[in-house]
Design goal:
The chain is an alpha+beta fold and about 350 residues long. It has 4 domains: about 100 residues, Reverse transcriptase/Diguanylate cyclase domain (Alpha-Beta Plaits, 2-Layer Sandwich); about 60 residues, MutS, DNA mismatch repair protein, domain I; about 55 residues, 5' to 3' exonuclease, C-terminal subdomain (DNA polymerase, domain 1), CATH 1.10.150.20; about 100 residues, DNA polymerase, Y-family, little finger domain (Dna Ligase, domain 1, 2-Layer Sandwich). It contains 12 helices and 12 strands. It has a 5-stranded mixed β-sheet with strand order 5-6-1-7-8. The radius of gyration is 26 Å and the shape is globular. It starts with 7 loop residues before the first strand and ends in a 17-residue tail after the last strand. Bound molecules: 2'-deoxycytidine-5'-triphosphate (DCP) and calcium ion (CA) (2 copies). The site of one calcium ion has 5 residues, from strand 1.
């Protein structure tokens, strides 16, 4: 086999918004529900699995959905709650690897070729993650496991909901040949229709076309189709930062008016900040001092350095400079220090070093 091999897991929550609503409102469980779409011209964001046999889908107008399924219950969406669950599942991902690329609130790619648990089986990792997600959130997720992002993504849809599918290296080519082009990630409806008109229904049909032919017909994407159908998709899992900043703050029992006293408190605040950073092993370029005055008016002062720092004494030094940067307007009830503008996570190891494999 002449394609590069990584161990990629794609995790995607089942009927995400709808499942969260059914979890939070037991009277909605087991019923066809739609999140969004309730208003006059609203659009359905998510449909519960009970609504799907009727043909209710996301992006459909509420009116059409109601026509297809008269018993459909419309629920309004609660973004903050979905974000909260999203953060919970991401925390689980980071227990396995820092190479996590979220695609949306409810899904992410993980490169587990090398992982924090030293586990060899991607299949096992996916099963563990799904079990942890369920234990923590009482929601189900599906997973796909394969050698690249494209295949992992397609695989996660295969046994949905609450299932997973592994496409091991030796099955990649046959899997791709049998795959309907409408199921290709990256091929939209318009392109799939065009392929159908050209007699390209499956990966096997696609494979018969030369790269030149495909490029001529589909432009730049032609090259992408040519390669993915041969199991080649070299796009890396691009990690995004865990958090955008890390900080600590203290509210004083008595408002402070002298910088000298505040300096002392900054020492404690930076120590608390260091403790938090220690766990996350971060280095950042921007230091921000937050000052809340006795009348609750809040001011922030920041400075961006030419280099990344993580050392507490350097952070303290910068925080003090910010404190003295200009005269305080009033007595102070709270001070906070935060570090942001983080250095990106380390790039992954070259894949040649990781070929010891078991799916
Ligand atoms: N979403 C949205 N608008 C869309 C599509 C989706 O607001 N047009 C939201 C609602 C979904 C969530 O994003 O719950 C995740 O989208 P998915 O495409 O992953 O769909 P679901 O999670 O709802 O269902 P599935 O079980 O098929 O993944
Ligand atoms: Ca989903
Ligand atoms: Ca999704």
């Amino acid at each position: 086999m002449d394609f590069p091999i990584r161990k990629i897991v794609h995790i995607d929550m089942d009927a995400f918004f709808a499942s969260v609503e059914q979890l939070d409102n037991p009277e909605l469980r087991g019923k066809p529900i739609a999140v969004g779409g309730g208003s006059e011209r609203g659009v359905v964001a998510a449909a519960s699995y009970e609504a799907r046999p009727f043909g209710v889908r996301s992006a459909m107008s509420g009116r059409q959905a109601k026509k297809l399924c008269p018993e459909l219950i419309f629920v309004s969406s609660n973004g903050a709650r979905y974000k909260e669950v999203s953060n919970q599942i991401r925390e689980i991902f980071y227990e396995y690897t820092h190479l996590v690329e979220p695609l949306s609130l409810d899904e992410a790619y993980l490169d587990v070729t090398q992982n924090k648990k030293g586990m060899v089986s991607g299949t096992q990792i996916a099963a563990d993650i799904r079990a942890k997600i369920f234990a923590k959130t009482k929601l189900t997720a599906s997973a796909g496991i394969s050698i690249n992002k494209f295949l992992a993504k397609v695989a996660s849809d295969y046994n949905k909901p609450n299932g997973q599918k592994t496409i091991p290296p030796e099955e990649v080519l046959s899997f791709m040949e049998a795959l309907d082009v409408r199921k290709f990630h990256g091929i939209g409806k318009v392109t799939a229709d065009k392929m159908y008109r050209l007699g390209i229904y499956t990966g096997a049909d696609l494979k018969k076309r030369t790269q030149e032919e495909l490029t001529e017909t589909f432009g730049k994407s032609g090259g992408y189709y040519y390669h993915v159908v041969r199991g080649i998709h070299t796009s890396e899992v691009k990690p995004t930062r865990i958090a955008k900043s890390v900080g600590a703050e203290r509210t004083f029992s008595k408002n402070l008016s002298s910088e000298i006293f505040m300096e002392e408190r900054l020492v404690e605040i930076v120590a608390a900040l260091q403790k938090r950073m220690g766990k996350k092993k971060v280095a950042g370029k921007t230091i921000t001092l937050k000052i809340k005055y006795s009348d609750f008016a809040t001011q922030t002062r920041s400075r961006t350095l030419p280099l990344y720092i993580s050392d507490g004494s350097l952070i303290l030094e910068e925080a003090k400079k910010l404190l003295y940067q200009e005269k305080l307007q009033d007595s102070v009830r709270l001070l906070g220090v935060s570090l942001s503008n983080f250095k990106n996570e380390k790039k992954q190891q070259p894949i040649e070093e990781q070929l010891q494999f078991r799916f």
